[in-house]
Fold this protein.
Amino acid sequence: MTKLQADRAAKNNLKENAAHAVFFLIALMSISAVILICGFLFYNGIPAIQKVGLWNFLSGNTWAPSDVPPKYGIHPMILGSIYITGAALFFGVPLGILAAVFMARFCPKKIYALAKPCVNLLAGIPSIVYGFFGMVSIVPLVRKVFGVNGSGILTAGILLGIMILPTIIGISESALRAVPNSYYEASLGLGASHERAVFFVELPAARSGILASVILGIGRAVGETMAVIMVAGNQARVPDNILQGVRSLTANIVLEMSYATDLHRGALIATGVVLFVFIMIINVIFSILLRRFK
Amino acid sequence: MKKTKPSDWILKILVYLSALITALVLLFIILYILVKGVPYLTPSLFALKYTSANVSMFPAIINTLITCVISLCIAVPFGIFTAVYLVEYAKSTNKFVGVIRLMTETLAGIPSIVYGLFGFLCFVSYFKWGYSVLAGACTLSIMVMPSIMRTTEEALLSTPESYREGAFGLGAGKLRTIFRIVLPAAAPGILSGVILAIGRIVGETAAIIYTSGTAPKLMHDVFSSARTLAVHMYALSTEGLHMRESYATAVVLLAMVAVINTVSTLLAKKLQGDM
């Protein structure tokens, strides 16, 4: 090797190593982002929780920041988020799973080429447009049918049920497609019809993937903000029936953040902390299920 | 001949009915917005200046574009380089890779309002940028980075190993191989991910309402507050005074998302077609 070549090799080596280091540092970014988000949320939210008391904060039935003394109980909002999510699952899950079965096993190729982009579009519509649509069409419909105000758990549930459809369809479909073909062929060989083979053999075989899609749907419904604000009524109280208005955890933050100060502001950030913990639990369950299905 | 049982018929009907309902719901949403909104798409809504009499969405559109550009300038390099590190440099047995994957999954699952809260606490309050386009764009860039990373990773993985081997065989270094051979081959896939990220930025409200703020005028610089189109629509529709304009804004948002989705799908198809 001449000196020139050796020099060049050394220089290249340096360049390659430097590049490796740079890529490594950039890859650290996602870790530091998570740490930063946790840090800022908990640092600003925990003091308020301590001041109100964890139990009072989580189980208090009154949210009255302007009372003297102010009351910060987010129990109604926790229930609100749970009720709305439950209603969304009631509408979205059966429809979504059956539609996924259609996409994976019943859909002719030509229709599939049209249906797939439609599901993607359903996923792409901004939540503010969904919310607006709910406000101008579903709210008046519920008002007319039930003779109530119209904004409430039922309305939010219908709207969120539509919004989680693409999530459920997408993941359930790929779970169904991941079931080995031999399952289907074996059940046909044993005399089952196409429908029976799909519903009683393939669907149970894909259950962990389908469950994962439902969990991800829950995550979306719990975290949804703008659409919920526009149709759920936003009253911070424990509802008596599904036609009454409720306020979700997410809505609580957006509605009051613009004018909140001191402990009120801290309590809102603490609401964000509770939401964050909820979502983390849901995500952990999701990734465990997804690993199993892979 | 096989006899069809009634239960089979019921199942079949249920499946077709569900697909039909889903399709009808989508069709209904789109038609509803279009029919109610298109008549109100007047030229005055695209006037250069926003006034309280004429709530023009033009400034909001420009603000959206600028916010998009700034967020992508931050998110795209970080997303792509992280994916390059994971696919090209790190060994898959590396524990560190698992941690990065877990963190990216975590980031992808965080709801946008939590991002908004973080942006408010970090950029707006702690860095003292105030409600500003820069704060909004930084928040959004963290939010869309995981999806850019994920699509880039998939695109890189689907690039044939023979490309890399060929480049190494011809004497190219690793860095050269990545930038001249692997990344160009994966470009359509990466681009489709970036375009999806644009779609998320355009439609996002909760994450930027407390970071970019809601000033309806055209931004002066990156430290001024400015609303994007989605925030503009939220402001209009909750005020309740400008329902017609809200419908029109919804049409524009819907059209943007439809175009963005189509382009992204076409690019993803191109990637598959090339392989």
User: Anything to note?
Assistant: The mean pLDDT of chain B is 89. The longest helix of chain B spans residues 6-37. Residues 41-274 of chain B form a domain with the MetI-like fold fold (CATH 1.10.3720.10). Chain B has two domains: 6-38, 41-274.
